Amino acid sequence: MDKHYLAPLFAPQSILVFAGPTESVEGHTPQARQLVENLKAQAYKGTLHFLDIHSNGTLADLARTRADLAIIALPEDEVLAALEVAGRMNCRSALIISTGISAELAQSLEKVAKREDVQLLGPNCLGFQNPLLQLNASVAGDLASSGSLALVSQSGALTASMLDWASKNAVGFSSVVSLGSNTAVDISQVLDYLANDARTQSIIVYLESISNARRFMSALRSAANTKPVIVLKAGRKPAGNQAAQTNSGTFVGSDNVFDAALRRAGAVRVTSFVELFSAAKCLASRYRPVGQRLAIVTNGGGPGMLAVDWVYEIHLHLGKLSDQLSAELKPKLPVLASLTDLIDLSEEATAEHYKAAVSAAYHDASIDGVLVIFSPKTGSDSIGIAKAMAEIKRAMGKPLLSCWMGDATVGEARVLLNEAAIPTFRTPEAAVGAFGNIATFYQNQRLLQQTPPPLSILGKPDIEGARLIIESVVAERRKVLTDMESKTLLSCFHIPVTQTILARNANEVMMISAQLGFPVALKIDSPDISDKSDVQGVALNIMNATSARDNYNDMVERVKRIMPQARINGVTVQKIANARRGRKIYVGLVTDDPFGPVIVFGAGGTMIELLNDRAMELPPLNQFLARRLIDRSRVSETLGEWRGASAVNMDALEQVLLRVSEMVCELPHLREMDINPIIVDESGAVAVDARIVINSAPQASSGRASDYHHLSILPYPARYERTLPLRGGGEYSIRPIHPDDAQMLKNLLSELSPQSRRFRFVSSMAELPPAMLARFTLIDYDREMALAAVVKERKATPEGDITETERIVGVSRYVTNPDQSSCDFALVVADDFTGKGMGSRLMESIMDVAREKGLSEIEGLVLAHNSRMLKLMRGLGYQVKAYPGDPDFKLVTHSL
Fold first, then answer.
1. Nearest Cα residue to 317 out of 295, 287, 339
2. CATH code for 289-448?
3. Which of 106, 464, 594, 680 is 20 to 30 A (C-alpha) from 722?
């Protein structure tokens, strides 16, 4: 419930400006002159002071002045000194507006800010705007209008362009933040702030680079959990991974991985500046689509059909009126109107006809949004129809978009639509695309809600055995596993593989082939050969022992000639799987910078590069995510009954993906992997060939040992689950909270007494707002943790049946502070479970987790008259002190 730590930066109540001499603009930098002009252009709602560090007295005099924010716009050689002064004056945050500051100086500025505990935005940025406070702390242009849309941009030019466009399109902002290169406060921290900002209802982001994938994904997931986030990223076509040693890395670019990351974060990606504008129009109208069914109302068949074509092109669904509503609407429309697919009102449509049609679409439960298209006709009233749409929009809870085609005769109507916050576009395709981008938010939210554990409920894998194999390869200073090693690693995780036996001479090849049964395949086995086909080290369809012997001799001789330095262990022999009715599937792994490991799925076989069918997902996976990954591939269309072949065993295919996810989570050494092909049919799936590349395991950025630090999305920490006896009889479990607990958490709060609610939330609210409830249940387990105490209650139904339900009766929580070494805690226990030792167990458990994460101190604020809580804290060894910020609270702390 406390203010966010960046509130003094982005919503300051007092500001000090260091821009040079205060009596004149002589000697000011161009940025300083623009900044001072922008700050004074409107009446800022806080206190604003201008200081000259050269003429405002001694440091002791300056130190008496304090402020939330110091804005520095000085020449490069004075910036560091000004930041030192701001720190000594106890400014809580600082903004440096400058250009061309070197990375070395930026690093020095960041060190000073960290030492003085100052949140620093800049250098090399254009600043920020807070329209609600009438604060233009930027050199990006005039102050934007106030609204509910936030803009975060790593490009100053794009920030200025967006503000210029918004002023002409009636789009307002809650915050505008420009982030340049080498800024100390990064995009992850800004997203985290906006996620907690009640005035911000939606966010658009222009992105060029990410410094820390885990922090970025954490902040993005938190923001997208409660409000739509649209992202435009530059650099969509980077060079591929030139060092790839498997097929995966040769045709998977980082842009594909970025798409997968955004889907998993619940955000929406656009691919052009035009699309970003379109999305901004929709978001500024505070639309929240809940599906993909778009109804189209038009007065011309041609424009309407263009819109319908684009609906299907981008995989949306055309919303159609029900038979009942169509029958009710028909008498209200012109004689030539058609309601078969789109709602074509004909050229005779008036404002009343449009109003009746849009109203019918709004009341149809099978329609998620409405696009209104107007084409200028002789005698048509574009302004009257626009006014009718503005009137009906006030009562609509569904998205309403408009497309007023033409130019000369519809300009005034477009102005009316903009003023009514109805997104308006010049072409049907642009309007449909805008709805599609926002509707994708609904789809991606389902992916965001998934928090799978690192290990599935399948049989436990042999993790230690797999690690021993990797250790032996690392000991030999190799990176590429042999065919035998790769298949053994898959077998450790219960992935079915074809039987493979190593033969070291021609006689062994004949005997092993005969025992396995013909036909067989022979493959050279060498730790120095990553691609066997390149050295003609593969022989297929060997039908007898003589052929096996001859192929062995020819293969070994050929490989020695092509790669004389290669160490040859022998040749692997495997029986060829019968794939007459099976489909060939590919499952792989790539490692992306900065997102880490990514699981790849698609069509397999010898034409893998040509087909280039690749769908991707970030680990960990669960069954829902595995099925969605399969569905996104083109090969998924062949997995049902197809040309006389039975449908494949989808459960077996999903289990392979879940097993690969387990491998990725538990083996941080994995860098690349190709399992190709996997033969899958109605009876199951079997991996025919595998190639795995390892590397040294990545270390946690903090330097601490940290499980799963190689993943950008932390798995559900099932290891913290435990069952405990309940004082007075019975038992309860303590486990990490997850998104499905939202309703139970809501029930816990509603059942608390007013006093308990006041003690926990310093408020008498009887119900958590949906946004806060979402933030409390979908959490990033890396930077915070919430442990829920759950009891099972048995009740008899009116029919006499016994049902068992779960109930959350307590929650302990910590959130890591910006210093990354301490955390704040919170605790709540249901009134009917107080005095049973649950509060102590929840606090001890949350302290254990914080200690494991490497945090050094846990602290919290307790109301001074909450004697029961203070007694509990003292009993756990906490120090209880007066809180300088408010005498009504006590500060309780404990070293970990």
1. 295
2. 3.40.50.261
3. 464
